[in-house]
């Protein structure tokens, strides 16, 4: 190898080394620059991290403060709610106590109302029974007597018919009539010691209730009569008309009060006679009518002696002489009629007149006779 070649190689080598050194120097600069950038970035990162930490810490502190404030607020709210709950609890206890008291009062009130209603029903029922005058229905024995005059033998079906008719004309029709009579006679019944305890006078029932009871009883009796025994409807109207006339007008007219008061009794006899299948007139009815007039006169004589003119104003027109005259007229008429009767009628009429005369004599001396006569409403 020549010297020139070596020299060229050496120069090239030097150039390469120089280039490498130059490149190395540049690389060092680049590395230094990168290190600087890295440091700057690390510094920026640290600053950013510190800022983040500071911001986060600030937010955490703020959150903590807010949380503490909320906790405090919640505690205050809880305390307030506890206070309200305590108040509500006391109110609830008071309300429960009031409800219990109201419940007791309501229960007591309900019991009281039930007792009052029960007592009211009992009073109304008792008043209805008193209105109907059950003790006077013994007078419908006359209906059985009239039936026996028509038919000497009473069969089972006849007994059923008699019981049904007596029920319709007794508790229903006459129950309503007696109630109607009480309505008309309120003023006089107040002055009568024997009648002042009747339901209407004693205010056990109102006037409207008594009127409704009367109308229902009468209408029910008339309806059943029309439905079951159409032939007897005329009797219901006759009984009703006579009793209304008596209550309104006839009871205030002397003598007519006796005649109208007594006439319904032979009508009861004729009712049974008609049911028995006969409708002809029998002089026994007239004899019994005269006997009933005597009993009605006896009743007024008794009331006159007890000074009951305030309860029965018509008594002011009567005196002992008039009573004796009426007894004489009724007895004389009755005994005179015996001459116009057949043998059987004479026997029956004679017995009736004898019983009447015996009752008249024994009324003030024999209590049993007095009770029997008083049972027949005159």
Q: What's the SSE blueprint?
A:
Blueprint: H1 3-132, H2 141-150, H3 156-184, H4 186-189, H5 207-228, H6 233-248, H7 256-275, H8 283-305, H9 320-337, H10 343-362, H11 367-375
Helix pairs in contact: 2-7, 3-5, 3-6, 6-7, 7-8, 8-9, 8-10
Description of the molecule:
The chain is an all-alpha fold. The chain has two domains: 1-94; 133-375, no CATH class. It is 80% helix and 0% strand. It has helices at 3-132, 141-150, 156-184, 186-189, 207-228, 233-248, 256-275, 283-305, 320-337, 343-362, 367-375. The mean pLDDT is 81.
Helices, by number, come to: 11
SSE ordering: HHHHHHHHHHH
Shape: rod-shaped
Distance between the termini: 189 Å
Query: How many strand units?
Result: 0
Oligomer: single chain
Salient structural properties:
about 375 residues, mainly alpha, 2 domains, rod-shaped
Q: How would you concisely characterize the structure shown here?
A:
Helices cover 80% and strands 0% of the residues. It is built from eleven helices and no strands.
């Amino acid at each position: 190898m020549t010297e020139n070649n070596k020299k060229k190689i050496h120069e090239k080598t030097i150039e390469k080394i120089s280039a490498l050194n130059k490149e190395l120097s540049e690389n060092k600069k680049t590395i230094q620059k990168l290190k600087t950038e890295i440091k700057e970035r690390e510094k920026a990162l640290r600053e950013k991290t510190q800022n983040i930490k500071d911001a986060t810490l600030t937010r955490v502190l703020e959150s903590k403060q807010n949380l503490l404030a909320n906790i405090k607020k919640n505690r205050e709210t809880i305390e307030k709610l506890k206070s309200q709950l305590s108040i509500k609890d006391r109110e609830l206890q008071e309300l429960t106590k009031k409800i219990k008291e109201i419940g007791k009062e309501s229960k007591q009130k309900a019991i009281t109302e039930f007792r009052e209603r029960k007592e009211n029903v009992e009073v109304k029922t008792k008043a209805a029974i008193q209105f109907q005058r059950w003790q006077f229905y013994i007078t419908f024995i006359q209906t059985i007597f009239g039936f026996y005059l028509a038919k000497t033998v009473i069969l089972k079906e006849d007994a059923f018919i008699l019981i049904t008719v007596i029920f319709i004309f007794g508790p229903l029709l006459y129950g309503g009539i007696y109630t109607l009579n009480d309505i008309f006679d309120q003023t006089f019944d107040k002055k009568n010691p024997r009648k002042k305890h009747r339901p209407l006078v004693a205010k056990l029932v109102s006037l409207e209730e008594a009127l409704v009871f009367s109308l229902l009883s009468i209408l029910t009796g008339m309806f059943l009569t029309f439905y079951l025994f159409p032939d007897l409807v005329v009797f219901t109207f006759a009984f009703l008309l006579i009793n209304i006339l008596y209550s309104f007008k006839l009871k205030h007219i002397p003598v007519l009060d006796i005649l109208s008061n007594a006439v319904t009794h032979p009508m009861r006899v004729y009712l049974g006679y008609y049911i028995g299948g006969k409708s002809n007139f029998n002089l026994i009815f007239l004899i019994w009518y005269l006997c009933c007039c005597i009993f009605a006169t006896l009743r007024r004589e008794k009331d006159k002696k007890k000074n009951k003119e305030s309860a029965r104003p018509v008594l002011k027109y009567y005196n002992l002489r008039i009573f004796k005259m009426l007894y004489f007229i009724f007895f004389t008429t009755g005994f005179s009629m015996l001459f116009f009767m057949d043998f059987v009628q004479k026997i029956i009429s004679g017995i009736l007149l004898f019983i009447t005369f015996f009752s008249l004599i024994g009324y003030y001396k024999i209590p049993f006779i007095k009770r029997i006569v008083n049972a027949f409403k005159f």
